[in-house]
Write a structure and sequence with these properties.
Chain lengths: 245, 119
């Protein structure tokens, strides 16, 4: 056995022993009552944001401005990444065959399943655990299994180019910013939720702006990650061939 | 009555899944090359995962005092169906890619796919 493996095993055992002794000595029992801030959220979330989901309420309402800027940072990161990969998609058009019929058929089934679960995560995000980012990531998983199985060239031929995806992402982010800015027209603060947006439409609980944020955020995340996956599927030879190859 | 039948049926499926897992593991160690090893691994992936999950769903229905037993049963059943669709295709794609890239050395008696491609 090499020295590296022995050190790894020693480290692993040391970590295990340390965590067990810490559990025994410190005895972190579950607190029997909530602390101040948690109590505030539990008691007031449903009244102040019309959402029973405290996590979504905190992310998109109590610290909404922070989350919007976070989304902007991710947008810039993806646009920067795509700019570094700058090259035409002609290289991808050569790869159009994809895998076998069997894998294509089952990928269709699985992608549909993933997409429906993603829709459930997004549209129920203000009522149950979930929301825009997890839902959009689930859609991105579906596109990430579709791209290798059907070949990226087929998708580009069908009109799914990364330019369009980035355009969708930009439009979704613009809509997100508009949802945040719209209350300013009535003289309210930016990212106002309940004093401007209705809690429900036609009896459907939409929790004000939370469901809108979830919808646009999921669109932005799904299209951004799909664009990145498309670029990552460019074969290595095309990169070596210089720009425009 | 029906509950205990479901419970024991589920247990039987569960144990059968364990047996298939053992067979798959033995095959994984003993078989000579990539393709038959992949076959052994897939036995563990399909029968060793789908059968126990079906067994869990039957067992959950068979225990009336279990809280949320229908949720457990439904979730394991759906997971089993998805695995039944996904696991064979994963092995199929692996074998296809290995054959296409010619990265596996083997001495087949018959290679129909190669014959088809050479036509």
């Amino acid at each position: 056995m090499s020295r590296r493996i022995i050190i790894l095993i020693l480290l692993f055992t040391a970590t295990l022993i340390a965590s067990f002794t810490a559990t025994i000595i410190l005895n972190p029992a579950t607190p029997s009552e909530l602390k101040g801030l948690a109590k505030y959220y539990v008691l007031n979330t449903i009244n102040e944001t019309a959402s029973p989901e405290a996590v979504t309420a905190i992310v998109w309402d109590y610290r909404g401005l922070d989350t919007i800027y976070e989304t902007l940072v991710l947008y810039l990161a993806i646009v920067g990444g795509l700019a570094m990969f700058k090259m035409s998609e002609e290289a991808l058009l050569k790869t159009r065959i994809g895998l076998t019929l069997l894998s294509k058929t089952s990928t269709k089934i699985v992608a549909l399943l993933i997409a429906s679960i993603a829709a459930a995560i997004v549209f129920h995000g203000h009522l149950s655990p979930g929301g825009g980012f997890p839902g959009g990531s689930a859609v991105a998983v579906a596109s990430m299994i579709i791209i290798p199985v059907f070949a990226a060239g087929t998708l580009i031929e069908k009109g799914v180019s990364s330019t369009k995806l980035v355009a969708i992402r930009g439009a979704a982010l613009t809509a997100l910013g508009l949802v945040a800015l719209l209350p300013v027209v009535k003289g309210l603060e930016i990212v106002t939720n309940q004093r401007f947006y209705p809690a429900s439409i036609l009896g459907l609980p939409i929790s004000g702006s939370l469901s809108l944020y979830n919808l646009f955020e999921s669109l932005a995340v799904a299209s951004g990650f799909t664009a990145i996956a498309l670029y990552l599927s460019i074969p290595e030879e095309a990169h070596k061939g210089g720009s425009g190859a | 009555m029906i509950e205990s039948i479901l419970f024991w049926l589920g247990s039987a499926l569960f144990i059968a899944g364990g047996v298939f897992d053992l067979i798959g593991a033995i095959g994984m160690v003993r078989f000579p090359n990539f393709y038959v090893r992949l076959h052994a691994a897939t036995i563990g992936g399909i029968y060793g995962a789908v059968l126990p999950l079906m067994g869990i769903s039957l067992m959950a229905i068979g225990i009336p005092e279990l809280p949320g037993r229908f949720a457990i049963a439904g979730a394991s059943f759906v997971t089993a169906i998805v695995l039944l669709v996904v696991a064979p295709v994963g092995s199929h794609i692996l074998a296809y890619a290995a054959h296409k890239s010619k990265s596996v050395e083997w001495s087949p008696v018959v290679d129909k796919l190669l014959e088809d491609e050479e036509k």
